[in-house]
Write a structure and sequence with these properties.
By secondary structure, the chain is of the alpha+beta class. The protein has a domain of about 140 residues: Butyryl-CoA Dehydrogenase, subunit A, domain 3 (Up-down Bundle). Strands 1-3-4-7 form a four-stranded mixed sheet, covered by helices on one side. It has a three-stranded antiparallel sheet with strand order 2-6-5, with no helix packed on it. A hairpin with a 4-residue loop joins strand 3 and strand 4. It starts with 6 loop residues before the first helix and ends in a 5-residue tail after the last helix.
Length: about 300
């Protein structure tokens, strides 16, 4: 099976890379808003509407997530087109589950996903209870609670949740890829006892294993994007991505030592986000349960599994 990008996909990613470089030039510490503005102006955030391909959107999401900035790239590029919301800033929220929402204080509305009842609703931020949750994990977080039923959206709740999981997997893979690349650079440059620490065989073996695990998670996410919105594949991709994200977090910080935990050092731009992404939607165990439910939905209906 040929897993290489075709000419159009490579050209698209090259153009995204140029836009990100331009965003950096506009602002010394290019924030997510600067990059998002560039992608929006060039039409890359509406790629699903233009081509009908979630795989194209997935390639963009994964590439942008490698940048050490926080922005809701997956929601904007994958979930919004599915819902027909255009550029409206919306955050997804699962009915019956309490967890802080990334970018919760910046969104215009909350997308309430009630999967058991197959219902989607859009609740304006003014109709939500909002409690600040801090930004210590790489994203501006808030606890949001809808206070009204909102406006119903005639789309599948299961499809919306699958795209949320898929986008989460892609952000995890991209973010982990950025942390991995930073770690490779660091061990090549950091010297102990007169030679780079990356020259030691044990470090090489650990990095090689991470590289293999990352590629596996990346292509599983791309396969899920090709078949999107597929609940089982999306949950499988999220399960694998959270596991790999946790491995990259651990190994990257072990190889960097104490400096990797300082906010001034580049690594924190990825690893703080990895922690938040790894817990979203319940984390690894919840994604794995979703795989089982999607695969054996008939058995669940018969009461064989719960």
């Amino acid at each position: 099976m040929d897993l290489s990008l075709n000419t159009d996909q490579q050209a698209m990613l090259d153009a995204v890379g140029i836009l990100i470089q331009r965003a950096r030039a506009r602002a010394r510490d290019a924030g997510g808003a600067v990059i998002e503005d560039e992608l929006q102006a060039a039409g890359f955030l509406d790629i699903v509407d233009a081509t009908g391909s979630y795989l194209d959107a997935a390639l963009i999401v994964e590439a942008v997530a490698r940048e050490p900035v926080a922005l809701p790239i997956a929601w904007r590029a994958m979930l919004a087109p599915f819902l027909g919301l255009g550029s409206m800033r919306v955050a997804p929220w699962r009915a019956g589950h309490e967890e802080p929402t990334r970018f919760g204080e910046d969104v215009e509305a909350l997308l309430v996903i009630d999967e058991p009842n197959d219902r989607l609703a859009l609740v304006q931020r003014a109709d939500c209870g909002v409690r600040h949750a801090g930004s210590g994990w790489g994203y501006p977080m808030a606890w949001l609670v809808p206070r009204g039923a909102g406006r119903a959206i005639a789309r599948s709740a299961g499809g919306a949740l699958a795209l949320w999981r898929l986008g989460l997997a892609l952000e995890l893979v991209g973010c982990a890829g950025g942390a991995f690349a930073q770690t490779v650079t660091y061990v090549r440059e950091r010297e102990q006892f007169g030679k780079p620490i990356g020259s030691h065989q044990a470090i090489k073996h650990r990095l090689a294993q991470l590289a293999v695990d990352l590629e596996g998670a990346r292509y599983l996410a791309f396969q899920a994007a090709y078949h999107a919105p597929d609940a089982e594949l999306a949950a499988s991709a999220a399960t694998r991505a959270t596991l790999v994200g946790a491995m990259v977090f651990r190994e990257a910080h072990q190889m960097h030592g104490a400096i990797g935990y300082t906010r001034e050092f580049a690594l924190s731009g990825w690893t703080t986000r990895l922690r938040a992404l790894g817990k979203e939607l319940g984390g690894t165990s919840a994604h794995a349960i979703a795989v089982t439910r999607a695969r054996f939905s008939g058995a669940a209906e018969r009461g064989v599994i719960q």
